[in-house]
Amino acid sequence: MAVVSTLTGCGGGDGGGGQLPNVSTVPPAADGGTSTKPTPPTPPATTTDNTDCSTSSTKVATAPSSSTGGQGAAGVIVRLSPFETVALAGRAMAAVTPERRIAAVIDRVAAATGKQGAGGRIFAAVDGADRPHIERMLSASTALVAFDRIIPAAKLEALVNAYAADPDVVGAEADDMMNVRAVPTDPDYAQQWNLSSPTVGVNLPAAWDITTGAPTVVTAVLDTGYVPHADLVTNLLPGYDFLTSIAIGNNGHARGPDAIDPGNWVTREEAADRSSRFYNCDPRASSWHGTKVAGLIGATANNGMGIAGVNWYGKILPVRVLGKCGGPMSDVIDGLRWAAGIDVPGAPANPTPAKVINLSLGGKGRCGDEMQRAIDDVIARGTTVVVAAGNEGNQFGLDRPANCRGVIAVGSTDNTGRRAWDSNFGADVLLSAPGANVLSTSNTGSTSPQKDTFSADSGTSMAAPQVTGVVSLMLTVNPTLTPRRIAEILKQTARPAVGAAVQSCRARPAGAGILDAAAAVAAAARR
């Protein structure tokens, strides 16, 4: 039986920094409301000139595949074996529903672990009020078995093994937490060098000569939700909140048609309280991460305020899957399917399916069977999936879902064109985009939302949306492009940066090179 390794919390920045980020504002940079393209700015002086290259020459040690994340998890994703392989002992096949089969698995695991020393101690720890129950069916053969509290990592692995060993189960994995993939930095850069520079940026002005986007292309942002920022709200669709935990969601309700971000702050008291749902999470102010990602993709241009997004007119579908301390993998899986127009039990049909999905999130471990199935389903619908590669500076073993088959994994570069010191890299990264001191839409609130602002962040979380936005431009000029063909064009048109000639182990961007929006959109229009 397959046992899938679990995730740990985010290793950097908005997902796992040990300090509360500073909140500051940047005055809106007005474009006058008349120009067709913003004036190309000059790249600021870099602040990421770290020459420590130890991770590029030695293999980084990772936890064994059977290990579990440090936070533990509140559920186990269980996949049943094909129905025809089940021994029914004379019972009528029509009467054995997937829900009844999962319930029987729960009972058998409880009985089996109760008869074994270590297993019995594990189940004793989740007995009574924490008895496992079927939270929901993720698909016709896969269920989320949930507990009323977090199962510590030390006990979780054996519990997952117990479910995987059941004869009616083909796979089990912990419903671990995903986290955002950004690194907060000095938010004082007021110009979007990352979009305009033809050497170390993504060369968007020439792409905008071909197209500035269209509302017919929908881009889904699976993240913390959004705040109705004045420079963004025109291009937003209603979206959906897929967080099942009221505590993580922090908005007083579970799933529903409200993707607004109420804030994802975690206090030091919550992180230190062993009885808290957020014990061992990193104390932090609210990140407004989803709003930043959405702004990079689709902030309104030529409106006399703020910044310009990559796609000026494309629609953004916010899908909320992250809250306080991240979000469960099962919620991300449901959000992926729904964003692409695939039915999800208990959720309404998506009236505006996305053609490209941005995932500026991740966690430790291999992709996992259920995450890979969801991505396969999405790609089969013709939807491209773009994922941040992660911020640990690792060459081996990307974060998941950046290591899943079929996704476009994006690394980050600094303003000299070199690989950002914290960007993951290696064979699974397709290409890079600027991810150091990147300006976007944000909010001044350190807890709940306050006033609109603009701030600069760093990380692969900021690089991935630029690729996502360019993919939406490519689909504007050629709606027939498949996810595979889009990846091929991006790889073929990526370019090395002029600054990459510096002799350094970080001299080359991760993957095929830096995203070249003009070349990619032009190539898409020719096909």
From TrEMBL:
<dbReference type="InterPro" id="IPR022398">
    <property type="entry name" value="Peptidase_S8_His-AS"/>
</dbReference>
<dbReference type="GO" id="GO:0006508">
    <property type="term" value="P:proteolysis"/>
</dbReference>
<dbReference type="InterPro" id="IPR034176">
    <property type="entry name" value="Peptidases_S8_13"/>
</dbReference>
<feature type="domain" description="Peptidase S8/S53">
    <location>
        <begin position="217"/>
        <end position="497"/>
    </location>
</feature>
<dbReference type="GO" id="GO:0004252">
    <property type="term" value="F:serine-type endopeptidase activity"/>
</dbReference>
<dbReference type="InterPro" id="IPR050131">
    <property type="entry name" value="Peptidase_S8_subtilisin-like"/>
</dbReference>
<protein>
    <recommendedName>
        <fullName>Peptidase S8/S53 domain-containing protein</fullName>
    </recommendedName>
</protein>
<keyword id="KW-0378">Hydrolase</keyword>
<dbReference type="GO" id="GO:0005576">
    <property type="term" value="C:extracellular region"/>
</dbReference>
<feature type="compositionally biased region" description="Low complexity">
    <location>
        <begin position="45"/>
        <end position="58"/>
    </location>
</feature>
<dbReference type="InterPro" id="IPR023828">
    <property type="entry name" value="Peptidase_S8_Ser-AS"/>
</dbReference>
<keyword id="KW-0720">Serine protease</keyword>
<dbReference type="Pfam" id="PF00082">
    <property type="entry name" value="Peptidase_S8"/>
</dbReference>
<dbReference type="InterPro" id="IPR015500">
    <property type="entry name" value="Peptidase_S8_subtilisin-rel"/>
</dbReference>
<feature type="active site" description="Charge relay system">
    <location>
        <position position="223"/>
    </location>
</feature>
<keyword id="KW-0865">Zymogen</keyword>
<keyword id="KW-0964">Secreted</keyword>
<comment type="similarity">
    <text>Belongs to the peptidase S8 family.</text>
</comment>
<dbReference type="InterPro" id="IPR036852">
    <property type="entry name" value="Peptidase_S8/S53_dom_sf"/>
</dbReference>
<keyword id="KW-0732">Signal</keyword>
<keyword id="KW-0645">Protease</keyword>
<feature type="compositionally biased region" description="Polar residues">
    <location>
        <begin position="59"/>
        <end position="68"/>
    </location>
</feature>
<feature type="active site" description="Charge relay system">
    <location>
        <position position="289"/>
    </location>
</feature>
<feature type="region of interest" description="Disordered">
    <location>
        <begin position="1"/>
        <end position="73"/>
    </location>
</feature>
<feature type="compositionally biased region" description="Gly residues">
    <location>
        <begin position="9"/>
        <end position="19"/>
    </location>
</feature>
<dbReference type="InterPro" id="IPR000209">
    <property type="entry name" value="Peptidase_S8/S53_dom"/>
</dbReference>
<feature type="active site" description="Charge relay system">
    <location>
        <position position="461"/>
    </location>
</feature>
<feature type="region of interest" description="Disordered">
    <location>
        <begin position="440"/>
        <end position="461"/>
    </location>
</feature>
